[in-house]
Amino acid sequence: MFWPIGYFMNAHKIRNRVGESAQNIGGTLETMEAEAAKRQFLEYIEIERGRAVKTVENYDRYLTRYFAQMSIKSVADITEQNIREFRLWLNRQPGSGSDSMKRRTQNYYMIALRAFLKFLRKRDIECISPERIELAKLPERQIDLITSAELERLLGAPAAALEKEEDTHKRLSYLRDTAILELLFSTGLRVSELCALNSDLDLSRDEMSVRGKGEKVRVVFISPAAKDAIRNYLKARRDMEEALFVDGRANAPHRISPRDIQRHLKRYVALAGITGRVTPHTLRHAFATDLLSNGADIRSVQQLLGHASINTTQIYTHITDSHLREIHKKFHSRSR
After folding, report:
1. Which of 190, 227, 264, 285 is catalytic?
2. Do 122 and 158 lie in a common domain?
3. Choosing from 87, 153, 284, 285, which is the catalytic residue?
4. Does any domain span residue 173?
5. What pLDDT digit, counting tens, does each position of 187-236 carry?
6. Beta strand spans in the chain (E)
């Protein structure tokens, strides 16, 4: 299995901190130092549970903030009362604009704390039950969608710009962006997954394996249009970079980043005359809704998207309800 360098660096730092903290634990398991327990928990979710380094960093930040705000020194200090007080404090923290912190963000703190308590229970360390922590109810998730006509204009925007361009480097960027848009819509990849791809793709095959969240590998399928666009882009490239998609100056290319893609996409959204909000994830939404609208079952869509839970995929069923309603009106017998 391939592990990124950051994985070993992070795991090494966690082990060092665990070792330093363990020397100061003392007493029984019930009086175990919270900081030492947290470090062991972080090591557990990264190495044994295979969580991404970014996830480990987020859990560390959430728990550290709770410990600091509620003056948690030992595991025994974690109580329902101070968790409730912490939630109240979070709810009063500023969020984006003039609003308070979003409930979804508040839930991230509680999810991390609940996972931490489950870890303690698994290690036979006395603590409050994780089930005592309930997540805040969230409003139905809003998904950024575009119409079929808007999607067609967006996919064709880089090619339209290419026809008017004479500069070699800019022409290459239009070929790249055509390939990126076609691949996002063809596969439903997360933008981070697309950025991590290397140029050694086997384009003689219709599918490829991709490593997603939690280091989980899944198979996605590439459309003929996406394969043609990738071939055209690679054929025009002159650099020796490993990455499938690169950005930057001609003499100093670098692996493209999600932020780079978002910046380029913004231009094509304008060229396509789309007034709504469009992000790289919008193409992932379009991929899922297109499958469901054309009869794909939700479990298959879940696998293609790489969702760990079917609940995450079910957000798309609400979107396709209107489509099904139109089918019912058009085809259901009116003779009764």
Report:
1. 190
2. no
3. 284
4. yes
5. 999 999 999 999 999 999 999 999 888 778 899 999 999 999 999 999 99
6. 207-211, 217-221, 246-249, 252-255
